[in-house]
């Protein structure tokens, strides 16, 4: 099925003990959602300064950029290196899927603007709406035009890169998804997350005093009542990355 294709996860966060133990790290979470038979999946811990060499890049069919605790508008050394890598991948027309921080850093690398969300944290399962043009783009997938996705972010894409197109929006976030050409797709939410990963993250955010205990309790109660559209997201992400749209 995979036809011998090769992909890389650009890991932009340290694995929590929970995710490491339960899923083999965030790399394992992405592989579980995206990998198909016959493919090779590698990981580069870019947040720790581990990047693919220039001569390795042509060997890959696509790249996935993960979420991060860092700000996409920051200027850490690894973030600046990542921006340079993304510009190279764009010039080579490589398929690139960016998730949360990955979505934001793609926008920045291509000339857009990111920053703190005016409406604050978005944590939970959010309904996002596909634009009319993107509904046509994804019509072969036979997925709903409104999709539920797990979100956990307080930054957002404020201004799209030139020539980029909004693919989806929500009541809280104007750019939930964007595409750039037919080779780059950014998704603000976390299609790869399960509810238990989000519950664990809510606990960590509370522990670090990023959110109040009363808010954490509300989030946990809400989470019991809703489910993300994981299968639809899996179909959308794999179809984009493997060039099946």
TrEMBL record:
GO annotations of cellular component type: cytosol
Matches recorded under InterPro entries: ChyE-like, Class_I_gatase-like, GATASE
Principal localisation: cytoplasm
Occurrences of domain Glutamine amidotransferase (ranges): 53-194
Key words, A-Z: Cytoplasm, Hydrolase, Protease
UniProt-listed GO biological process terms: glucosinolate metabolic process; proteolysis
Domain of life: Eukaryota
UniProt-listed CDD domains: GATase1_1
Entry annotated with the keyword Metal-binding: no
UniProt record similarity statement: Belongs to the peptidase C26 family.
Name of the protein described by the UniProt record: Glutamine amidotransferase domain-containing protein
Species of provenance: Hibiscus trionum
């Amino acid at each position: 099925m995979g036809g011998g294709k090769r992909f890389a996860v650009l890991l932009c966060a340290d694995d929590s003990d929970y995710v490491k133990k339960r899923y083999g790290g965030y790399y394992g979470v992405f592989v579980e959602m995206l990998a198909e038979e016959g493919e090779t999946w590698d990981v580069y811990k870019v947040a720790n300064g581990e990047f693919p060499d220039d001569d390795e890049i042509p060997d890959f069919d696509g790249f996935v950029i993960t979420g991060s605790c860092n700000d996409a508008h920051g200027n850490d050394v690894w973030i600046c290196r990542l921006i340079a890598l993304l510009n190279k991948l764009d010039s080579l027309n490589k398929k690139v899927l960016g998730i949360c921080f990955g979505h934001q850093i793609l926008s920045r690398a291509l000339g857009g603007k990111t920053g703190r969300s005016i409406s604050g944290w978005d944590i939970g399962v959010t309904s996002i709406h596909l634009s009319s043009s993107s509904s046509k783009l994804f019509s072969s997938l036979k997925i709903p035009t409104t999709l539920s996705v797990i979100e956990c972010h307080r930054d957002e894409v404020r201004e799209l890169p030139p020539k980029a197109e909004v693919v989806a929006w929500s009541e809280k976030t104007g750019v939930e998804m964007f595409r750039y050409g037919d080779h780059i797709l950014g998704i603000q939410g976390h299609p790869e997350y399960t509810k238990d990963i989000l519950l664990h993250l809510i606990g960590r955010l509370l522990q670090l005093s990023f959110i109040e205990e009363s808010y954490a309790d509300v989030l946990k109660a809400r989470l019991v009542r809703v489910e993300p559209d994981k299968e639809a997201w899996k179909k959308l992400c794999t179809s984009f990355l493997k060039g099946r749209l």
